């Protein structure tokens, strides 16, 4: 029996594309510093941080999943034998690359992504092509509440990584399409603890068809399993 397994994350062109994009994303904190005076002025005027970080303001920021989270997304897709993956918040496509690599290595299928910023949508498609994964993705431009409304079922894996006030509405919209055993991963649980409390309460209550726990990976990854 051969000991070699197929893992697109370790192969070209996916490996070097991810390496290059993560390197570019490491500039995000420096860009953020340049916006600090603007955010502070907004806070003084009574606008919360969450209210100020609009897609337009963040149009040049990757704000991606970490390599560790990416590996976790890939492995989860492989464990589920996922064929249909849905993603809220594609940005420049880093998380989409991990998910699409998983779908590809499972033998085929699609990641249905969503991005509201047109410039980011264009760049994400370019990056997915550079990673050799275009045929496994359908990144939809526009508000995810509209663009993800007609995704095909059954959905095997859902990643929530867009703006935090939409996690719960998007989960509720897609819950009927999640197959039993489907996994929902939601990012930034620690960073946006207060904003995401209603979401975490929903999936951890046991009353809405999920069992769930918060994983201490990067900014906090809520790991929820769809149960009958
Ligand atoms: C944290 S970033 C996503 C990072 C990406 N998952 C990655 O790992 O590379 C969140 C993205 O959600 C997008 N977004 C925010 N509101 C949205 C909406 N209503 N519909 C679609 N995308 C949205 C933002 O423009 C932003 O690019």
| Bound ligand species | S-adenosylmethionine
Radius of gyration equals 17 Å
Beta-strand fraction estimate: 15-25%
Helix-strand sequence: HHHHEHEHEHEHEHEE
Quantity of strands, as a count: 7
Report the mean per-residue pLDDT as an integer: 95
Largest sheet: 7 strands, mixed
Tally of individual helices:
9
Helical fraction equals: 25-40%
End-to-end span in angstroms?
Answer: 38 Å
Reading side by side through the largest sheet, how are the strands ordered?
Answer: 3-2-1-4-5-7-6
Give the class from helix and strand content and strand pairing.
alpha/beta
Using the alpha-carbon principal axes, give the shape.
globular
- Uncertain residue ranges: none
Short description:
It contains 9 helices and 7 strands.
What are the main properties of this structure?
binds S-adenosylmethionine, 40% helix, 228 residues
Q: Can you describe what's shown?
A:
- The model has no long low-confidence stretch (mean pLDDT 95).
- This protein has 9 helices and 7 strands.
- With 228 residues, the protein is α/β, with parallel strands linked by helices.
- The chain is globular and about 55 Å long.
- It is 40% helix and 19% strand.
- The chain has a 7-stranded mixed beta sheet with strand order 3-2-1-4-5-7-6, sandwiched between helices.
- Strand 4, helix 8 (167-174) and strand 5 (178-186) form a beta-alpha-beta unit.
- Bound molecules: S-adenosylmethionine.
- Residues 55, 58, 62-65, 89-92, 94-95, 114-117, 120, 143-144, 161-163, 166 line the site of S-adenosylmethionine.
């Amino acid at each position: 029996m051969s000991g070699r397994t197929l893992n697109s994350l370790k192969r070209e062109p996916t490996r070097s594309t991810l390496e290059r994009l993560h390197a570019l994303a490491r500039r995000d904190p420096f860009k953020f510093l340049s916006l600090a005076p603007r955010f502070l002025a907004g806070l003084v005027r009574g606008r919360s941080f969450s209210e100020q970080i609009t897609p337009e303001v963040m149009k040049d920021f990757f704000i991606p999943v970490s390599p560790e989270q990416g590996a976790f997304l890939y492995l989860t897709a492989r464990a589920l034998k996922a064929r249909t993956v849905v993603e809220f918040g594609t940005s420049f496509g880093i998380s989409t690359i991990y998910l699409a690599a998983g779908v590809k290595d499972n033998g085929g299928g699609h990641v249905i992504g969503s991005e509201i910023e047109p410039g980011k949508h264009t760049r994400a498609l370019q990056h997915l092509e550079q990673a050799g994964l275009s045929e496994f993705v359908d990144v939809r431009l526009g508000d995810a509440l509209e663009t993800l409304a007609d995704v095909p079922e059954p959905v095997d894996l859902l990643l929530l990584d867009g703006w935090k006030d939409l996690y719960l509405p998007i989960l509720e919209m897609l819950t009927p399409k999640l197959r039993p055993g489907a996994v929902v991963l939601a990012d930034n649980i620690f960073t946006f603890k207060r904003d995401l409390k209603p979401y975490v309460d929903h999936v951890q209550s046991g009353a809405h068809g999920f069992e769930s726990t918060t994983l201490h990976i990067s900014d906090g990854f809520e790991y929820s399993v769809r149960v009958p």
